[in-house]
Write a structure and sequence with these properties.
about 60 residues; mainly alpha; 1 helix; coiled coil; Transposase
């Protein structure tokens, strides 16, 4: 049978593992959000270029 302190230590270790996994997941999500923000900025820039190009063609006609 485990002692009281061994049981406490095991619970503490499990809590640390869960914390580290949650932290790693959080960092992964933050990195993904930053990537999506960069993709959105890139798409907006492409959209503006295409709209400017279309407006230029309309003014020529």
């Amino acid at each position: 049978m485990r002692s009281y302190y061994e049981a406490k230590l095991i619970r503490f270790d499990a809590m640390q593992v869960r914390y580290m996994a949650a932290r790693e997941h959080q960092e992964t999500l933050i990195a993904r959000i930053k990537q999506l923000e960069n993709d959105l900025i890139e798409m907006r820039n492409k959209k503006e270029l295409i709209e400017a190009e279309l407006n230029g063609k309309k003014s020529i006609e």
